[in-house]
């Protein structure tokens, strides 16, 4: 089923318990409420969704649905393409391939 937009998908995941919010800081991913920081090897990507901007197709974003090794579940959004956030790009490139379940059927 194709979701209408990124906000619909975020809401769907929040309803499934993916409620933690993260940001990239100093090469680590920080959970905003607890301020706990995670290295790439401590993150599992459960799903990945790509979106094109409605008014401008070059405004592209990615929604990562993630779980930490200590059980937090949440989402990270990042721009990709010309307006990408290099810190987030680098962090997600460094997640071990075995921790990326986004292309596997689970």
UniProtKB/TrEMBL annotation:
Organism domain of life: Bacteria
Name of this protein: Phosphoribosylpyrophosphate synthetase
